[in-house]
## 1
Amino acid sequence: MNELKKLLIANRGEIACRIAQTARRLGIETVAVYSEADAQAKHVACCDSSYLIGPADARQSYLNIDRLMEVVRESGADAVHPGYGFLSENVALARACEVDGIMFVGPGPHAIEAMADKARAKAQAHQAGMPLIPGYYGDEQDDAFLKEQALAAGFPLMIKARMGGGGRGMRVVRSMDEFDAALASCRREALAGFGDDTVMLERYIERPRHVEVQVFGDAHGNVVHLFERDCSVQRRHQKVIEEAPAPGLSDSQRDAMGQAAADLARSVGYVGAGTVECIVDPDGNFYFLEMNTRLQVEHGVTELVTGLDLVEWQLRVARGERLPLAQDDLQLNGHCFEVRICAERPNKGFLPSVGQIQTWSLPEHIEFAQGDVRVDAGVRAQDSISPYYDSMVAKILVRADNRDQAIARMLDTLHATEISGIQTNLGFIKAIFSHPEFVAQSVHTGFIETHLKQLLNMNLDRSPA
């Protein structure tokens, strides 16, 4: 077993605080990194030591691999945890750690590479037995050829950046008349965002659900799935609400998805935490979407319905330990929701809100751990929200015996939460939880878009710009 005494957390905000809490419980010393904009941030205070890595611009700080590796050497860290976002799925960081003999708390470079290329990931998933949406996932990128493939796949169609992620580089095309402009637009966004303008095509499924499976593997060949999460309530392909278990899935569907996801992870020798994302059509058929080779923002949902600490599992696996539990030992318990509280203005097109937090008042809760009401936050009262980073300021999670009770508990928690000094989507989320179709489990990835006007009118926390 490898020794892990000091952990550098290559991230910021709530995920850095979350990782630090588990590391502290396990007796592991923690190292924070911060930009000039984050000198007084909560995650800096949560760690045992901290290092400035650059200016506010993430490209010169949190995305600067050379500087991060300098700090690894200066601090004497044994391992690097990338969190999520930033460099969490960057094969160059994983390789840099490998070259320097530093533990990377995540999968190896080969697995990251295999899943980063969406077309290659689709081929791997198909080989492992996962169903794919009909479409084209090959290397030929000539415009005329792609138009032929689009006709063969049929409309409506989705054009996707092959190296894309985070909802970027995606265009829905409903007829051939729209194809050329959508292809050009998708390629421009893909090249700007990912440095690669290759695309793939797949049939667009109307009113799908987005269901993902949490998987875990170790270096001894063991792989398990920790059930699924429903992430269908999204805005512009960005998740807003997650829940587990996914409503409306039968036991046989749940087992089939879980086993298929575990088989895919096993096929690439996967080590660590990963998520296999799927699209579920209105008839209940599931199709592979992509695999994220990192801990997800919504990992706490799985923690609350399984009673486990996934960051602890990550650290133990990184040290070379076997998975703590086998598949037959894993059980679901109750129902959990997570909401993402963001500094934004729903009544102004969800534009970001910046400024100093004056009031930060939440009901009784547990931070970053097991509890019926849990809050994972990277900010405190008097902290300033800057324009440089993601707008999410906290995640609120609740657990109850069933879905209806969990909805009631979430509404009670949201009504008892007060945040001032910045504007947030708090009222908008209350409106979603109060919407009759959400309560009735009638959710799909277009839920917010379909009901946007009604939800904005229901928003009880509207405030001027």
## 2
Amino acid sequence: MRKNLFVLMALLVTAALVMSACAPKPTPAPTQAPTKAPTEPPTKAPTEPPVPAGPPDLTGETITIYHFGDLSGPYASITAPLIHGAEDAVKAVNEAGGIYGATLEIKFADDAGSIDEAVAAYDRFTGENPNALVMITYGSGEAEALAQRFAEDKIVNITAGLSAQAFYGAGSGYTFGLGPIYPDQLAMTMKFLSENWATYKPASAGDEIKLAYLSWPTAFGQGGLTAESRAYLADLGIEIVAEETYDVSPTADTTTAILNAQNAGANVIWTNTLAFGPAALINGLNSLGLRDQFLVAGDNWTMDLATYAFLADPAYGVGLVAPFPYLWWTDADNAGVQYAQGLFDANARPSSEHNVGYLLLVAGVDMVVKSITRAIDTVGYENLTGEAVHNALVEMSPFDALDGVLKADFSGGSRSPHMSQIRMIQGGPDKFIVIQDWIDTPDLRPAE
């Protein structure tokens, strides 16, 4: 019996093993392939102007600026100090290492006061250098005639010709000034006089300002009168009672212009001239015995040592009023004035050139160097263009040229400074006394 039981158990185990072996194998769980993230097409970063990694070494390179003006015509004696100020300033820049080691070169052309010659000089310079960066001009006529060309060719023009038309006329945009435009200067001065008439009016004058505009028949001479300045004066209640011209000559006869102003009842004379221009007028007033009947005012260039060279008597200059958009040589505590005086002395310039032209062009070259340096820092030397210099002048505004000798702000579409003092001659040469400290000028840009 027990034997049969063992046999039966053995058979059951064997059957179980057979059934297990014959059973279907378990199906493994399906393996899911890893999901690959969708591939986006690569996005190309927007192209930006190349930014230099640091100050470059431009040793062996040359950066040229160009200037042209009258060195043999009617303005020769006036232009010479401007030219020498620019040349001495460039020399000093190179002695100090240039611009990142690059030599700054300055090339001049004498246009003899001729617009045609100025255009010819421009064509010659641009023919020599298709990538000209900066040109300096000295007269309103040249600045007006070439304003569109400067913009088309994207060449910055730094100019002492403070013409509203040159800066803001149709097609302009690359002409920048070394002072406020003449309409702003006229408006600023007349506003000051209207607010302080009781202090400065001639003894015989009434309570209202009657203005006579006596000036040269040139773009510069007529530069103060525009639709905007006429409207501004009218709003001030100032009537222009006479408009007269006289010759661009040291020996000009101003008698007719003066007598016409007197007959019209004028008590203020404005002249948009310089050097022998205001001198001829003031000499004429004194010769006629009429000096005390008028307050004489003029553009910024009238108040200068160059005027004294043509006055019959230095005392005749006393009482002249003018906007003064820069410092003067007597502001000797200013570092920029000290620097300019050092250049003047080192180059043994004659005392006759110790005037506003020399000082202002040292400041002008400082402006040029600052803007070129910023342009190089922004786009790199290999991409340096007049457009980059233009953009630098705008981007670095407001700024002080030559440690505050000139205050410039070319932001907001402005291409002329809008800050100035007003000064009066209250003594001999150099006694240019501040009667109104730095303030904003009216903004009489012409309507577009």
## 3
Amino acid sequence: MPQLSYIDDTIVAVSTPVGEGGIGIVRLSGKDALAVADKMFVARNKEKPSEFKSFTARYGDVVRGGETIDEALLTLMRAPKSYTREDVVEISAHGGVAAVRTIFKLAVDLGARPAEPGEFTKRAFLNGRIDLTQAEAVLDLIHSRTEAFLRVSAHQLKGELSTELERIREHLMNVYVAIEAIINFPEDDIDTEKQWVLSLCERMQGAQDDMQQLLSSADHGRILKDGIKVVICGRPNVGKSSLLNVLLKQPRAIVTPIAGTTRDTIEETAQIEGIPFQLVDTAGVFEPRDLIEEEAIRRSQMSIRGADLVLFILDASAALNAEDEKLFDLVRGRNLFIVLNKCDLPPRIDEHKIKTAFPGGNIVRVSALNKEGIAQLEREIAAQVWHGKVIDTHGILISNARHVRALQDALAAVAQAQETLKKKLSLEFVSEGIKRAVNFLDTITGRYIDNDLLEQIFARFCIGK
């Protein structure tokens, strides 16, 4: 397992967001955490932190040279039953910027080192409390934008993905051991040889099926983690900004009867049916009157081309015009919903012409003004994203691109080994292929990983976690 160069240091960090709040937490971890705490915290009962029992909290004062900095609670978690498996001290003070910063600086002056990003979680990994998938789950929990992805991350933190990967690994290691035994103690009987070749192929296929099952969840995991980019487009004054505001459930975009009110793309995030969406309201595509509108049109067209899903807005109360039809060519062939807005007004739009231009297209009727049809639109968007499937967020979903690549590499290595065995080539090649597959799986859990990649992973964490 990789080693951290400063693993023997005692580290300190502010574990709460910068700014004013009800509470601010300064966290220490390491062999000298208690020694530092003894020099800066005086409990009201005069007991030293090093004398506290584990999992206890004491009320007292943070002091420097006899002067009280702040009153606080000190919580102690002794090794190995702590987050890092080291002695951990948490000082919960008032959440002012100056108070927390002063307590942090005092701990540094007394011998603690400022922690690197994610170093507390890194120590939990290096000290064997969690594996790398669980460490990455901590980051996913922090960054979760929806309850659904929060649930997926919590299952990964509990070790459910790790357990499944270890099961596949053990399966492959059994195959590897069997091949090595055959290499060292070959069978002369042809029928026996056929039987073990068949048995090994079946076991390899089982491992491939298990990995493929995990990979089949990757698209859904990515959607829950990263979200879907939805671009709202249409000619001026068809209700694009009104629809954006309704989907966001807040008045984000300015809405007026004046065509061309939106002169730049507006991007906001929203949760629809448990899915995070990046909603992009575009400027109406029309002939530019100045350089600003020319740039707005360019950005709108670029957003449409990069969208996962397009909501093409048409005014149901007006006849199609040249600007609408100009957009037909821009959105045709894309993942698309045709939204007929202003359905609270008498219809004048030629729906037959729309259906001819977009055979089999998804057409939804709404009134953004009265919020009619919005719930139906949201349900149909979610169904389109999930392709009509019901997604169980209580199970294992692969959401990490690093895990996907490693699983794909492991799957390819096993498939190649299986093909080599079927061709009756040297068993050493088969054995090597299985070993490579195991190594790829080990990079996911962190059993086998280089320090550079480890640094990259933990650099994405915040300081204090």
## 4
Amino acid sequence: MKKLGPLDIYKQLPKTNCGECGEKTCMAFASQLIERALTLKDCPYLKGKNMEALVKLTAPAVRQVIFGKKSPVKIGGEDVMYRHELTYFNETAISIEVTDQMSEEDLLERVHYVTNFDHERIGQHLTLQSVAIKNTSQHPDIFAECVKKVAENTDKALIYCSFIPESLQAALEVCNDQPLLYAATKETWEKVGNIAKEYSCPVVAFSDNNLSELKSVAAALQSMGLTDIAVDPGTYPENLSVTLNSLVQLRRTSMNEDEILNCPIIGIPAAASDPMDEVMAASMMINRFIDLIIFHTIDMYAVLPIITLRQNIYTDPRRPVSVEAGLRPFGEPKPDSPLLATTNFALTYYTVASDIESAGLDAYLLVFDTEGLGVEAAVAGGQLDAYKAKEAMEEAKLTETLSHKKIVIPGMAARISGELEQISGWEVMVGPKDSSGIPEFIEKRWKESA
């Protein structure tokens, strides 16, 4: 793994501190490059040898490949093997497979499922990224017709899956939305490589459980001038240890700056005949560096654990998952409705919100900005104290919304209640430590004090 710091980049920058990139200094620009918040093109004075040096220096250990024009999907682009070493940048893409021998009804049902899939969890919308079209008929014209139907019914990125170069060619003639071409083998790499060059498409190199052969295929494609290459080492749902070993070897090779196999990795849990085996294979792959999986089962019992696992792994460990701070209404609150408070840590907020909604309460919820920390941690770390709570209350302009001056703070924040009451002039009530107790608290304590 490359250990890259701002100083490594700063040495190649103009050092003019012109601010045209949007940052005040070149050092700040260097830091933003590492975070991938900015790109080298954002510096108008970066040219020549310095630009060439930085392109090489900032290239990720795993090359990034993008496919799809309407809804681009980024795979690869990682700098570390394990998330805690820095962070992961591009989550595992999930593609649902269809075949060119499905009935039109079944085909469109699966395509619409992928297109419309949107599952909200702790404030994030979890989606499926693409449709993988398999040439099971092994007939170019049938495959092309299927690709056309799919493309007409979705804006999702597409993967054309066929080991027959003529089928890939026929599909691209009817629709070239820069799909991912799957796959080039030791027998077809030249034909598939030429097709990928002609249509400017990324391509997958495939070899079944033979990493030496896989490297040869990838090297052959690179020798043709292709750079947008992913690799598939083969998937064995009945023997996951073989698949696991291949994935780990490939990613370690990338971290050692191998310029041939530093590619995104494709896995196909859809190769499993049993849905539970498919879920297990997909889970293992997401846990072990896979950049894109092709999945078959569309039942929620299979899809939900996969997208949830992916979300958990691909959150940034440096930044807690948070929601926007501010005042939120629940139900149909009135000026005399209760005012509750919590932090902007997503898990805390959505737990509190769920308890308020399930109880059918008409209330306001003031969300404090605690930099994404939960109540107890924020109080202990100073992200939530009486003065910051008072500032949040003033920014929310509560007196314009409410006819009273009472606020219920979380039980875990009881230590700030006295000081907050003194400096704000509000009555501060200490609520339950667990938000499940809010309905009973409102019924007994709030209404009694009204």
